[in-house]
Structure formats: structure tokens, C-alpha cells
Here is the input.
Amino acid sequence: MTVDRRVQYEALLTDLCTEAADLDALLGELAPEQWRIDTQSRGWTIAHQISHLEATEQLMHAAITDEPLFRQRVPTTRIKPEISHRELDDPQLGCIRWARWRRSRRALLDEFRNAAPDDRMPWVGPSMSMTSAATARIMEIWAHGEDIYAAVGARRAATPRLRHIAHLSVAARDFSFINRRLAPPTEPFRVEITGPDGVVWTWGPQDAPQRVTGSAYDFALLATRRLHRSDADVAATGRDAVRWLKTIQAFAGAPGPRRRPEGAARHRTELSPGASSTDAVGNTS
Here is the structure.
């Protein structure tokens, strides 16, 4: 039986709302001075991370509703939002940037809800469907959320929503090679990623010699370039599969800087937190 595309799409939008709500809840616990904390992306405070989400959502909103405006904004949309020293010193910085992100994501979600899952929108490079756009937003919010959680010393739980990031990463396999001017592999891979509930998500032929396996959380960290492959609970079998783990990225735009190894691969304890323009828009570095 074919699952209704609209039902799948509504479930995807529910996951998008939940991913944003989880990060929103953490932001609500921040003290005013914490918005100025540096994150692992050099020169980016927590305020920069949230402002980046706002800017990319505004650009995506324009892509859906006003293509000429979108084309006009693409060259001028910056990866790193501009925040002046005066703004960083403002005690209301967090409240202002938080409210702006809430408005931008609410407006974009309204457009997603009004669209059909297979409607297409322009983007940097090829156009994409509403389904792909919503999936990309889950990835973007999760990745920048990771930077914020790490900055305040919190660790969130892995959720089944990581499957969206894994799927996006697998779909972008060839792009990750082409983006580095490398020829993509000609053979399909077998990818087996273990979700937080122990269910294994799979892609590709079961008998493919090129294989990648690992935990969902670390695979997402690797694909969003938040973790060096030597520290990830992700393994590759086959020359091309090993090469993929060096190039993997789930987002559009330039790869961004590599993460430095932290040491030997380790088991990641996942705890709930306590009481991309050409290069710009999709780049989660």
C-alpha cells in the first residue's frame, strides 16, 4: 500500500516544528549574557547561530513566495550574520534575536503548510521540492542547535528525527564529491544507521560491497561537519565508502573547516539538557 504523500509531508512538518521547539526551549533557559557565548564555529556566538537560522529562513520564504526577491537576496545573504559590538553589549540581544527567529520560522512554516509536498522552489543550485526544503530545515536547525547545546555544556537526546538528516546525507552523497571536484562513486552504497530506539535505517542494496554503518547521532554530527570522522561511531568498508566519510556533508554550499580530532572514537552518552547564497545559505559550518 502506498502511503499518502500528504500524510508523510504533514508528519515531516510536525518533526520540523518539534525540532525547532526543542531548541526554542533551550533558548528560553539562557541568561542574557549567555547569548554572547562563543560556539565551536569561530567568531560565532549563540546570537550569531540563531540569526543565521533567521536569515536562511527568510531567504527560503522569499524563494517560495517571491522568486525575483530571492534572486536579489542570494548574492548578499551572508553566512555569518552581522552583529555589531553595540548589539552584543545590549542586554536585550537574546530577546530580540530570539523573537526574530520565532517570526521567521513561523512565516516559513505557514508557507510549507500551504504548499503541496512535490511543489518546487528555486534554491542555490537546482530547485527542490517542499519535502526536500522542509527536510533541509530540520538538518539546519539541528546542526546549529548542536553548536548552541555544546556551547552551554548541554547534551540533548537523540531522536528518530535524525533519520531525516541521515536520509539527506545519503541523497547528497554524489554532491559531496562533486563539491570538492572529485568524481563520485559509480556503485551504490549500503548504509545502515542505528536510530535511538535500536531500529536500523537502511539505504542501498543489501549486498553492496561499499558499506557505511554507525549510530544516528554520530552520523548526523559527521554529515553536518560537527565531528571528525576519527571520533565518530561510524565505520566504512570499501575504498569509496572510506572516501565518502572524508567528504560527507548534508548541506549545500562550501564544506567549511574540518573539525579537529578529539581523540580515539568514543561512545557518546546522549542526555537531555538540564533545568546556506552559494556558499552562504546552506552552509552549516
Summary: The chain has two domains: 5-151, 162-247.
